[in-house]
Write a structure and sequence with these properties.
Chain lengths: 462, 746
């Protein structure tokens, strides 16, 4: 039996035989009549459909428009209707939104209220970050941010707090779950995927979700990976860092920020809070996007990709995984199990150029790891997104830098190598010339950064 | 209508109460366009042209009609014939006739039992196109040899010899700019361009319509004006206006974009054919491809100035591209351009140019922000080169009461000088600038509008009040209506409930546009309350057995006044209400008029910007809006309009744009690539409310919603240009453009 069980605003829900690609948003609005959750874009960009989802690892916001029902199995979902109490009493963020006149038209308000309530519960006060996934066209955000600040010191209401621990009876009732499409271990996934190599793997659904809701793809079979317990570990060991494929960008950001602060900053600009809470490292790599932001950083760190098919495992340098636009070195039935890179003294510098600071696709993402010994470049690893059909190492630039005095000399020495490494496209995000110019300027920026000039990834932002 | 404005002390007006619908908005209870359902409801999709310009050779609906769950398919043949004028344009836009005129132009629609069934059926609809040459750029569309969008679309205002794509012309001014330029110490002439931007409301267009075989129907939709929707639907479906009842849902943003009609007649046509209710919700991509962006522009502005800052003459040519239909707001662009300045010699010309793009729709002060960008940039450059203070120069030349406007009339009482003086005194203007940062100043102007308005105010038996207005609440206007009614009646704000009435329960109301709501519905509310007060006094007088003229209304009570009125205790509204059934029946005040005293509004903005010289990226570090509100009814919502206009202006200036490829297809039809600002893109925008009362409103209200977007493009461009040391003449100032300009300038 395909049964999906979860808590909705504190009440248990059990669903049988729902289409596996039914989104939470459509189900809430059409089947449950909960129309407080809004559809503004249906592609995870506007945040009007934001819901809170809790499980054993905490409470986070997600975009319900690109969230399939099977992904909710065993979790607690809270919509705007459940942000206020069962007796109708308002949550502190709702009271503050009214008091500070945080709504003009009010359409985006439910999404903001949910994002604010989640930040409130988690004690997060960096509201520009917490609310960057919610678009408001009316207010200019000032009254909303003031409302969030005002509510921050109020206690978390009981009905919100209780989502953190699912009742034991509920956990038992949901045993078994959605069999056949939601493996609970890597072994189970390996067996299922070999048997059904045409299946589409759904991790966070931020990419697949779009493909399905926009009817670009209608695959026969999906495998939902959210319930797999042994693919999301982040192991920071003495020699290496190993990240399970199902680790979310939010989790990686938290775990890596101290080791490689520049990567932490890059992840913080990756999508929005809602997207980072859903998207996984495995998905970001395996979908092979030329503008995925993690691969260039990982390549610069010397990462290896760990793949598994059935019981066969292999690993390869991450840059070798990307073969051509839309083509990766991955056999049918083979999936990403983990990524690893050596523990190393931090030399990583990541720079992301996009039209808007937050929640925007990179025009160019450049990552540099340049090791210097006795004033000369000893080893350079340079990788870019947005400069070619795949994430690409700049090997000519690396060679040109190698052995050079680490100064303007090295930058000059590499000047012509850029054109050998890259012939980027002109598209709506940037022109060929702009991409090449800014990629070169990023090396200058990396050098200045290294010299202690006061510059960081934030300043690179448009 | 002129008002003496003897009232200068307010009890409710000017305070900041919670809005009456605040809780509805924060709990998700408020019902928007897509939140309604009906028994037996069908779901509809619209099929759109993938071509910028194509002849529709054939539409074969047979397979789609036979598909599972499909109940109706409509094409152009299902709408009224023989329309002309703007009704024809609206119909042609919402359902193509012989040709698809832009990427995203609707060609057919399907209603089915589920949205999935409708979507599947849409793929079975067969449309044969013959692709035609297209043009999407305003300057190219005016050149010889450009594809003609529609022969004979031009009206008599267009000078002979122009390309047929130029369909309207505006020409006004006085004096002779050439004489003015001859007197100048410095004359600058430059060309400026702006791209089309979308209003970007977060709520997509949505409606639920029922139209029976008897021609009677109900329609629920998100719109800025439901009487207009009623009128247009009736014409396009050839039914009688009063047989269609239209209810406005809550509206999730409009900014002018929901003044137009795009989908409602389609839903009704499908409903009529299927004889079932039909829900139609636009996907976000369709919102970008087929609903109103603003016009894109190409502009030439020439201004002469003396060394002392006197502007001696000004001229401008403003070419506005409004898509495949007439209607680009070029006359507003031309008229607003030099409005802040009292000029002896001024001449402005506007051209309305058609291209293969979606039909432009109003966007917050349509046409004015672009004009300000061009004019205020040239003034900034003149100030820089002559070493003059940008505010002093603007004060020296400012339009004032009695000076002749660039487009003809003399100004009534206006507040431009007051905004400039307030800007000059604001700490922002004198704050030190960080190294590499630049500061920009700009003025902006908008006319504001009044329009047909009807309001009804009904007393309940407990003395509370039900106010019915006909202007959809797009930004908190229920609160200001409650406040004005409470002020006049002398009762608590909480005792008034404001409802947006449907088309069957109130007289005609023009759209919520032109910054007219707080002005016109507010004026009508005040007058309806005064009408109610008269009736209340009459009831009290009858009880007391005295003349109605001997009764005054004060603090929510009737009181006897005058020498012979007698000595009675004040009679509160609750007492009169309780007895009204016995004293003459229901007490209802009302007001209907087309007021004519909408006060124009000016603003001055101050912006600080930093430019990254390695990437061309811009950060807005500080922003101050100074604007004349006439009288701020609810200051928080006035500030909200100021901040909202500035925020949209920041997006427009730096980032937002319609990007077309060589095939004329829109490349960024989604929030993924059409990037409106998020919280981290914006500073906390500071606001200063200047109050120079409008003589045309009982409390002095001027519209505030639109003027706030007039100065930002120019103010930001001036700040960026001053930071970069290069004059930026094309919007948006995306990083690549700035980097190119920096390279060219160095």
């Amino acid at each position: 039996m395909r049964e999906i069980a979860f808590l909705l605003n504190g009440e248990p829900v059990e669903l049988c035989d729902v289409p596996v690609t039914r989104t939470l948003l459509d189900w809430l609005r059409e089947d449950r009549g909960l129309t407080g959750t809004k559809e503004g874009c249906n592609e995870g960009d506007c945040g009007a459909c934001t819901v809170m989802v809790s499980d054993g690892s905490g409470t986070r916001t997600l975009n319900s428009c690109i969230l399939f029902l099977p992904q909710l199995h065993g979790k607690a979902v809270r919509t705007v209707e459940g942000v206020s109490g069962p007796d109708g009493s308002l949550h502190p963020v709702q009271q503050a939104m009214v008091r500070h006149h945080g709504s003009q038209c009010g359409f985006c308000t439910p999404g903001f209220v949910v994002s604010m309530a989640c930040a409130h519960k988690n004690g997060m006060h960096d509201f520009d970050v917490q609310l960057a996934g919610n678009l408001c066209r009316c207010t200019g955000y000032a009254p909303i941010v003031r409302a969030a600040e005002d509510a921050a010191s109020e206690p978390v209401p009981d009905w919100i707090a209780e989502d953190g621990t699912l009742p034991a009876a509920f956990a038992t009732a949901s045993d078994g779950g959605v069999s056949g499409i939601a493996p609970e271990s890597a072994d189970e996934l390996a067996a299922l995927y070999v048997a059904h190599p045409d299946a589409v793997l759904v991790a966070g659904a931020t990419d697949v979700g779009l493909a399905v809701t926009k009817a670009l793809q209608e695959p026969e079979r999906f495998l939902f990976l959210g319930g797999i317990q042994d693919l999301n570990a982040i192991d920071v060991g003495p020699k290496a860092v190993r990240i399970g494929a199902m680790a979310t960008l939010s989790e990686i950001g938290d775990a890596i920020a101290d080791l490689h602060p520049s990567l932490g900053e890059l992840i913080r600009r990756f999508g929005s809070v809602q997207v980072r809470n859903a998207a996984t490292i495995g998905g970001n790599i395996a979908n092979g996007s030329p503008v995925g932001d993690l691969p260039p950083a990982l390549i610069a760190l010397g990462a290896r990709l760990h793949l598994r098919r059935g019981n066969d495992r292999r690993d390869l340098p991450l840059e070798d995984f990307f073969l051509d636009y839309g083509v990766q070195d991955r056999a049918p039935g083979e999936f990403v199990e983990a990524v690893s890179f050596p523990r190393q003294t931090d030399r990583l510098r990541c720079y992301k150029l996009s039209k808007r600071f937050d929640q925007d696709i990179s025009a160019v993402c450049g990552c540099f790891s340049i090791r210097v010994r006795n004033g000369r470049v000893n080893e350079a690893r340079v990788a870019f997104g947005g400069m070619a059909a795949i994430p690409t190492r700049a090997r000519h630039v690396e060679n040109a830098l190698s052995g050079q005095e680490w100064s303007e000399t090295a930058i000059r020495a590499a000047r012509d190598a850029w054109g050998q490494d890259f012939t980027p496209l002109t598209d709506l995000r940037a022109s060929t010339a702009y991409r090449l110019d800014s990629a070169r300027n990023m090396l200058t920026r990396a050098f200045l950064d290294d010299q202690g000039t006061d510059t960081n990834v934030l300043e690179v932002a448009p | 209508m002129a008002f003496d404005q003897e009232k200068d002390e307010f009890k409710v007006v000017g305070t900041r109460p919670d809005r009456p619908d605040g809780i509805d908005k924060v709990t998700g209870r408020a019902r928007f366009g897509a939140d309604a359902t009906a028994p037996g409801m069908l779901h509809a999709v619209i099929i759109r042209s993938p071509h910028a310009h194509a002849r529709i050779v054939k539409i074969d609906t047979s397979k789609a009609e036979a598909a599972h769950g499909v109940k109706a398919v409509v094409t152009r043949a299902d709408f009224a014939e023989g329309l002309d004028g703007e009704n024809w344009n609206i119909l042609e836009n919402l359902m193509a006739g012989e040709r698809a005129l832009y990427d995203g132009h609707a060609v057919a629609a399907i209603a089915a039992t589920s949205s999935l069934a409708a979507r599947d059926a849409a793929r079975m609809l067969e449309v044969e196109y013959e692709v035609l040459p297209h043009v999407t750029d305003v300057d190219k569309a005016m050149q010889e040899g450009a594809p003609v969008i529609r022969e004979g679309a031009a009206d008599g205002s267009v000078p002979a010899g122009m390309h047929p794509n130029v369909v309207r012309c505006h020409d006004s001014g006085h004096g002779d700019p050439e004489d003015g330029f001859a007197e100048a110490d410095l004359v600058i002439e430059e060309r400026f361009t702006t791209e089309a931007t979308h209003q970007g409301y977060i709520e997509p267009h949505a409606c639920l319509g029922t139209l029976g075989p008897d021609g009677r129907g109900e329609l629920w939709c998100c719109t800025q004006g439901h009487w207009n929707v009623q009128k247009v639907c009736a014409a396009l479906l050839d039914i009688e206006t009063s047989k269609l009842r239209v209810t406005a849902s809550e509206i999730g943003g409009g900014f002018g974009g929901k003044t137009a009609v795009f989908i409602e007649p389609v839903a009704l046509a499908l409903s009529r054919k299927a004889n079932r209710p039909v829900k139609l919700v636009m996907p976000r991509a369709d919102v970008f491809r087929a609903t109103g962006p603003t016009a894109s522009t190409s502009m030439d502005v020439k201004i002469g100035m003396k060394k002392d800052g006197t502007i001696t003459g000004a001229s401008g040519e403003f070419r506005c591209q409004g898509g495949a239909f007439p209607g680009a707001p070029m006359e507003f662009t031309a008229m607003c351009a030099f409005a802040p300045y009292a000029l002896k010699h001024v001449h402005q010309v506007g051209y309305d140019v058609m291209t293969n793009r979606p039909k432009q729709a109003a966007y917050r002060a349509p046409g004015s922000p672009m004009a300000a960008f061009a004019v205020e940039s040239v003034i900034d450059e003149l100030c820089n080169r002559l070493g003059l203070d940008p505010i002093d120069v603007r004060l020296k030349n400012a339009s004032r009461e009695g000076t002749k406007a660039n487009f003809g009339p003399s100004w009534d009482r206006i507040g431009l000088v007051e905004t400039l003086e307030a800007a000059k005194e604001h700490p922002h203007f004198s704050a030190p600038l960080a190294e590499g940062a630049g500061r920009g100043i700009s003025c902006g102007f908008w006319f504001n509008h009044a329009g047909e308005t009807a309001v009804q105010l009904a007393l309940s038996e407990d003395g509370t009040v039900q106010l019915s207005v006909g202007t959809p609440d797009i930004g908190g206007s229920r609160a200001s209506m409650c406040m004005m009614a409470a002020e006049e009646l002398g009762i608590p704000y909480e005792d008034v409930r404001t409802t947006i009435a449907d088309t069957a329960t109130l007289g005609y109301n023009e759209i919520s546009h032109g910054s007219r709501v707080t002005y016109a519905s507010g004026l009508a509310t005040i007058e309806a309350a005064r009408d109610t007060v008269k009736k209340l006094c009459k009831r009290a007088a009858a009880k007391w057995g005295i003349d109605a003229e001997a009764v005054e209304w004060r603090d929510g009570c009737a009181i006897p006044s005058g020498p012979n009125a007698g000595d009675f205790d004040p009679m509160p509204i609750k007492e009169i209400a309780r007895d009204m059934g016995k004293t003459g029946g229901p007490i209802v005040g009302h007001f209907e008029a087309t007021p004519e005293g909408a006060g124009v509004s000016f603003a001055t903005h101050i912006v600080d910007a930093e430019v990254d010289r390695e990437t061309g990226a811009t950060t807005i570090t500080r922003y101050t809006v100074v604007q004349d509100a006439g009288k701020a009814i609810h200051p928080s919502y006035v500030e909200g309009q100021y901040q909202g206009g500035a925020a949209q202006g920041i997006g427009w200036a730096l980032n937002e744009e319609y990007v077309y490829d060589d095939d004329g297809r829109l490349q960024n039809a989604g929030f993924l690539d059409y990037r409106i600002p998020v919280a981290s893109d914006l500073p906390m925008i500071d606001t200063v409310i200047v109050e120079v009362p409008n003589p045309g409103h009982p409390y002095g209200v001027r519209g505030v919603g639109e003027t706030s977007i007039c100065p930002p493009l120019a103010a930001i461009a001036n700040a960026v240009s001053n930071a970069a040391g290069v004059r930026m003449q094309d919007l948006p100032m995306r990083p690549s453009r700035i980097l190119e300009a920096l390279k060219a300038g160095s």
